[in-house]
Write a structure and sequence with these properties.
three-stranded antiparallel beta sheet, single chain, disordered N terminus, 262 residues, 28% strand, alpha+beta
């Protein structure tokens, strides 16, 4: 018998599971039967997004707390401050170019000039929305600025440690969480694998001040199908002639560990 919590979220600790693996892990759960089980999803792209900013969404009460505290603090009884990747339009465009270059390494300048933008049509999930998910307020900072501030405040200036924290499956949302903590707390979080910085098969890695995120499901509402034209070395987004199906969508979150309500 499943508990109420298991009906709301399924948590797989210490792993970032790709969708196929997540389906195997969650196939006996209530949440699997909502959206994750679907097989009739139109083809969609799997780009590598190089993301240089983080966002923190909040409501008015949270905003007042941030102002009063003059910064971001963990809620009472919790020790994590949560951020998410903030993908900018130019990063979607750059990811499209990389995807085309990797898929069609022999495409000509003429073919590249004829290529119409298509990736933005698939970036329709809440992960790409410019609106706050939890209210009317959003804070956006460069990744390096957030990590530098964390290093100075919690790590005595040393680089923070990143670990693979967990995969969370909600009704329609998949969250890949990365844990960030001080080197002084290595033993406290040793059960979580160290975050890999150069794994080409990982959902998310980090290098040179950017998170490289490879979305597993970037659409939520699938209004287009990806069409590949290898004879022309091009890709296009074709509108669906049927009712767009809903599917899971994914995003990456950072959990910054803080202590004593700092």
């Amino acid at each position: 018998m499943q508990t109420q919590i298991e009906y709301e979220v399924k948590i797989i600790k210490s792993k970032h599971l790709r969708l196929n693996d997540l389906k195997q892990e969650a196939q006996d759960s209530y949440l699997y039967k909502k959206y994750l089980h679907k097989e009739d999803i139109p083809a969609y792209p799997r780009p590598a997004l190089h993301v240089s900013c983080l966002k923190h969404d909040t409501n008015r009460q949270g905003l007042c707390g941030i102002r009063a505290d003059e910064g971001f603090k963990a809620p009472q009884k919790l020790s994590l401050v949560w951020w998410s990747l903030a993908v900018r339009p130019e990063e979607i465009q750059s990811a499209e170019t990389r995807l085309l270059d990797e898929t069609y390494p022999k495409r000509t300048e003429e073919q590249a000039a004829k290529q119409e933008d298509f990736l933005w049509r698939f970036a329709s999930s809440p992960a790409f929305s410019e609106k706050s998910r939890y209210g009317s307020y959003r804070f956006t900072f460069p990744v390096e600025e957030v990590l530098t501030a964390y290093s100075e405040q919690f790590c005595s200036g040393d680089p923070p440690i990143m670990r693979v924290f967990e995969t969370k499956l909600f009704k329609q949302e998949v969250e890949y969480a990365v844990l960030v903590h001080s080197p002084a707390n290595q033993e406290l979080f040793s059960e979580y694998p160290l975050f890999l910085y150069d794994d080409p098969n990982a959902v998310c890695t980090y290098r040179d001040g950017r998170f490289v995120w490879r979305p597993e499901a970037m659409c939520e509402t699938h209004s287009y199908a990806l069409i590949q034209r290898p004879d022309e070395n091009q890709m296009t987004a074709r509108p669906l002639s049927r009712r767009p199906p809903f599917y899971v969508w994914d995003h990456v979150a950072l959990a910054l560990h803080v202590e004593n309500g700092q």
